[in-house]
């Protein structure tokens, strides 16, 4: 199989973890006789430094023409002035919009060997297997913004069509899993959430009667997600709530460095794959970043954009085997026992069976 993959290393530890994922993808191509072609482009802070904008036109065009996009991370203290007119995160929001990516899938599946890294009691984590579906292109992040010396506002807005399409993604995913959707909102306060709940109820009743649907307020969901995570299958929510809840959910797995994501649009369109962690500027360039989330994002790329399920599972098994053998980076390992980014990547490659 031939596939053109655009790599957006970005900022901070982004280039380090992206390099690790590309090495794994190249090995998969070798093992399964595929032809993967890679090209790098700028996004985020590095793009601001080189081009004056966080998302150059050349990057957008290359991504639109690719079969899939792999992203490292964006942002850092160099560009963190909240009053700056140009910020790295604008590049991430813009590429999602340009590619029509409206559903962000974030799986959370704690690995038995890494349970000690989680602050949650191990008996609560056994058997946890959740996918959070976060709406990506609407809500308060994209609404009209105003600011004066005396006040500021951010408009949260959702259309029926925006809610319908992410709901359908969540219900389809649940139908192929354990058949349960939990829709998270703040319908006791917000009109956008009341619309969200109405649309979710209608889509579930009319189009997916075989899938169980429950509603949960976001504040209570934040509690239940840690107190009884085994009860959840697919969780679907709006942009900001999803952003917050998935960082919380990372504590179930023990580290942000273990959680991948896939940003998807209409079927057949380009998908974007990235770890959910940030650019971690405090450890950038030290060679100690955890590459597993980005490698697992590459597995999601193979599954969702290229239809290569066997190859995706091979990567996931290899990462699982590395974790089982305590191939931990600093975010997971006891002091003095941590592997470098390169060593962790090699641990995955060796378990894939890559010839030396």
UniProtKB/TrEMBL annotation:
Class in the EC hierarchy, top level: oxidoreductase
Keywords: Amino-acid biosynthesis, Branched-chain amino acid biosynthesis, Cytoplasm, Leucine biosynthesis, Magnesium, Manganese, Metal-binding, NAD, Oxidoreductase
One annotated GO molecular function: magnesium ion binding
Binding locations of NAD(+): 76-89, 278-290
Annotated site residues (Important for catalysis) in this chain: 141, 186
Binding note for cofactor: Binds 1 Mg(2+) or Mn(2+) ion per subunit.
Locations listed in the record: Cytoplasm
Residues bound to Mg(2+): 219, 243, 247
Pathway participation: Amino-acid biosynthesis; L-leucine biosynthesis; L-leucine from 3-methyl-2-oxobutanoate: step 3/4
Domain of life: Bacteria
GO biological process, one term: L-leucine biosynthetic process
Isopropylmalate dehydrogenase-like domain sequence ranges: 4-348
Function of the protein: Catalyzes the oxidation of 3-carboxy-2-hydroxy-4-methylpentanoate (3-isopropylmalate) to 3-carboxy-4-methyl-2-oxopentanoate. The product decarboxylates to 4-methyl-2 oxopentanoate.
Alphabetical list of PANTHER family matching this protein: 3-ISOPROPYLMALATE DEHYDROGENASE
Subunit structure: Homodimer.
UniProt-recorded name of the protein: 3-isopropylmalate dehydrogenase
Organism: Pseudoxanthomonas composti
Upper lineage: Bacteria, Pseudomonadati, Pseudomonadota, Gammaproteobacteria, Lysobacterales
